[in-house]
Amino acid sequence: MGKVAPKVDEAIETLNMRDSPTRRRLIAGAGLVSATAAASALMTACSSSSNTAGATSSATSSAVTGSGAFPTVPPWQFWFVNHVTTNSFFVPTQYGFADAAKLLGLPTPKWVGSANSISAQMVAQINAAVAAKAAGIATVLTDSTSFTTPVANAMSAGIPVVSYNADGSVTKGVPDIGTNRLCYVGQALYTSGEQLGERIKLAVPTPGEIVIFIATPGQANIQPRYDGAASVLTPAGYTVSEIETNANTALELSNMKNYLLGHKSIKGAFAVDGGSTSFLSQALKETGLTSLPNGGFDTEPLTISNIAQGSTDFTIYQDPYLQGFLPTVYLYLYNISGGTIVPPDTDTGLSFITKANYSEYNLSSRYQGSTTALKYLPRPAGAISNPLATTST
Could you report the per-residue pLDDT of 265-301, keeping only the tens digit for each? Predict the structure, then answer.
């Protein structure tokens, strides 16, 4: 029998699953080692109510019926405070937290924050969540100073706080988080930038001038990616220009085109945010630069379509669905366990999507934000292709 990860074992005890079939399924083979596996196991646990004793009390106006093995709990209202609430990247995130809440029998978390990455607006919403006695807060930490006090106030008021998508600033690979949040759920941003730099070296093997577009320079959710890429490219002899496109996706395309029209000698065009990446193909086409290598981040439907057509070379995936789903589950487990199941830092991934492997990401699903429909997507038949692991926790 495989070794059980400590957090999973704690959850098994909490859910009274010590001798249940669900418990045996959870530990068969190997322990949980990834965010995706953890989410899948939790869903399995919640679907096993026929095998596990549930709560005996019925829901009342001040409580919700537990799901599967979970007992009846108050109707915990979580708040997600975001920096770009209208950005298409976070559509799967919103589906993720809605699906997790439905699975757990909770109200759908509130979606609030700023449309234009204005920290003061985000802070105001964190304060509003504290005043409303939220059961938990998930927020994007777009810098290392603005959120120190509001997060501390929430924690002091007994409201658990987790971060997602960004976790404070990163300087030369060294994090400066700036808050006492419980955990971070998201991509290792500086590392992903380094990997972008290595990929650019393959796409543009002869050093020269390249551009990296960025929606909001200085913001902790994307600036570390540029910094990581530049740390790889600049010593190798590349001239790297960092060009702002705007947090408002309606402005990104025109800003990209304006730069490209004045810099036709560049050897490649890349981006570190989802919106800018999605417009790369169109911007290059409309400026006569379709032959340039290009790529970036995230899986906006337009980006996947461009990859399918061969007009964008690659994109880096960080799983926005999990960035909504897992914080909701973590806040729930923290509350239901009396604060003893402390949420872990969770890397939601770094994988390259190209024309060779894009097809599964191109299917209509909530996981990629391309439909509201709830769908089961069968895995492709055959072997699972995955490189040898190089990191562990």
Answer: 999 999 999 999 999 999 999 999 999 999 999 998 8
Among 43, 126, 121, 47, CA closest to 84: 121
pLDDT at 38: 52
The domains found in the chain, sorted by start residue, are 1-52 (no CATH), 72-187+319-350 (3.40.50.2300), 189-317 (3.40.50.2300)
CA 116 from chain centre, in angstroms, equals 19
Strands 314-317 and 351-353: antiparallel
- Cβ atoms 35, 320 nearer than 8 A: no
Q: Which residues of 223-233 are buried (b: 16+ CB within 10 A; e: fewer)?
A: bbbbbbbbbbb
Contact between 2 and 28 under an 8 Å Cβ cutoff? The reply is yes
The mean pLDDT of 138-148, rounded to a whole number, is 97
User: CB of 89 within 8 A of CB of 275?
Assistant: yes
Under a CB-based contact definition with an 8 Å cutoff, are residues 4 and 12 in contact?
yes
Amino acid identity for residue 87 in this structure: N
Structure letter (DSSP) for residue 235: G
Annotate 10-41 with DSSP letters as a single string: HHHHHTT-TTSHHHHHHHSSS---SHHHHHHH
pLDDT at 2: 46
Q: How far is CA 13 from CA 250, 279, 319, in A?
A: 50, 49, 29
Closest CA to 111 of 186, 120, 166, 128: 128
Burial class (CB in 10 A: 0-12, 13-18, 19+), 130: buried
| Helix ranges, the chain (H) | 6-14, 21-27, 35-46, 91-104, 119-131, 148-156, 189-203, 223-233, 249-261, 274-286, 301-309, 322-336
Maximum pairwise Cα distance, the chain: 70
Strand-by-strand arrangement of the 314-317 sheet: 239-244, 209-214, 268-271, 294-297, 314-317, 351-353
The residues that bridge with 111 in the sheet, in sequence order, are 80
Rg from Cα positions in the chain: 22
> Helix (H, G, I), strand (E, B), or coil: what is residue 315?
strand
Amino acid letter, 116: N
pLDDT of residue 34: 52
**pLDDT over threshold 60, residue 170:** yes
